[in-house]
Design a protein that fits this description.
The structure is a homodimer of 194-residue chains. Chain A is of the alpha+beta class and 194 residues long. Chain A has helices spanning 3-12, 19-27, 84-89, 110-119, 122-147, 150-160, 164-167, 170-177, 181-193, and strands at residues 30-34, 39-41, 49-55, 57-63, 69-76, 80-81, 96-99, 103-109. In chain A, 50% of the residues lie in helices and 22% in strands. In chain A, helix 8 packs across helix 9. Chain A is globular and about 55 Å long.
Chain lengths: 194, 194
């Protein structure tokens, strides 16, 4: 699948576009290549773009006062990702976004996204549905953090990000689930024996 | 402020409507009165409406296997509230929604909301922005649950829901923050002395 097809398939899930609208949308995007371990965003910077991932894997995380990393989300091919709070409010981000694998992104700035909404209002629908799905996924995560067992949360992670576990380190998975790597290792051992 | 004004002010924050569009929107809404402790939604039921709160206070929560309540959100006058996951997917809800105070709501069904998007696409924008804000608030909460101290989470609750603490019991506040009521009481005492 070409880059263009990957993004067009993503759009076609929710809206139907004319060729001129597609061309206009693509004219607003810029491509960015990110080497493994390179930063897309650092804490304190303003998140200037919403990003569609063409290839690779990125993570968004915070570092708490004790130096501990907490991963808020992963992103892989076909996912949209950014610090939406910083992106929409223009305030400095609390997050870091970096690449766990070499990555290629298509980026759109806030100004261009507003222009897109104005010129092609169908994109209001597209991003409304995208946000709707993101909101739902987050609500489930909040609930799970409160009421799921460690095992349930781990199994949910595998379901949400299929195959991701084979691509990233156990340390990253632990930082997403709020476990220590040792605890995650014990849990995986227990599950493989059950 | 009349009911109509409260909702119109809410809409006017993000979109500008013609009188015919306002009339059409209002024709799609039905009013519902909820007595204190009455349920708007029970676990296992499908959430059939998105709800705008005209007055009163509601909460959305789950009950875990040990019988413990976990409050996911509160809603007061001027807030939109529903189990969006159940509402949009038509699957049974994991949540209960009930009234902590007598409440009056304006409700719109999924079918009518889709009709609204079709007839007045500006509402795509309105609900896109609403979801955007809800998403941002949730992302902050996930991060806070992982990295904030108990004290920081309590202070954030007060900021997010001003005056709410005077309206609901400490037990409810504790169930939102994931504290025991005893722990919350100790924390409040400590803060009042500092």
């Amino acid at each position: 699948m070409t880059n263009e097809e990957l993004l067009l398939n993503n759009l076609a899930r929710h809206i139907s576009l004319e060729q001129t609208e597609i061309d206009f949308f693509f004219s607003l995007l810029t491509q960015k290549t990110l080497k493994k371990k390179a930063f897309l965003l650092r804490q304190g910077e303003v998140c200037k773009t919403e990003n569609f991932i063409l290839s690779g894997c990125i993570r968004m995380y915070t570092i708490d006062d004790s130096g501990q990393e907490h991963i808020v989300m992963f992103g892989v091919e076909g996912w949209w990702t950014s610090d939406l709070y910083s992106f929409f409010t223009g305030t400095p981000s609390e997050y870091y976004i970096d690449a766990l694998e070499d990555a290629v992104l298509l980026q759109i700035t806030k100004e261009r996204l507003e222009l897109l909404y104005e010129k092609v209002p169908k994109f209001e629908r597209f991003f409304r549905i995208l946000l709707q799905n993101a909101f739902i996924a987050q609500q489930r995560r909040i609930n799970q953090n409160l009421s799921y067992t460690a095992e349930q949360r781990y199994l949910d992670f595998i379901q949400k990000y299929p195959q991701l576990e084979q691509r990233i380190s156990q340390k990253q998975v632990a930082a997403y689930l709020g476990f220590t790597p040792v605890f995650l290792s014990m849990l995986r051992k227990k599950l493989s024996q059950s």
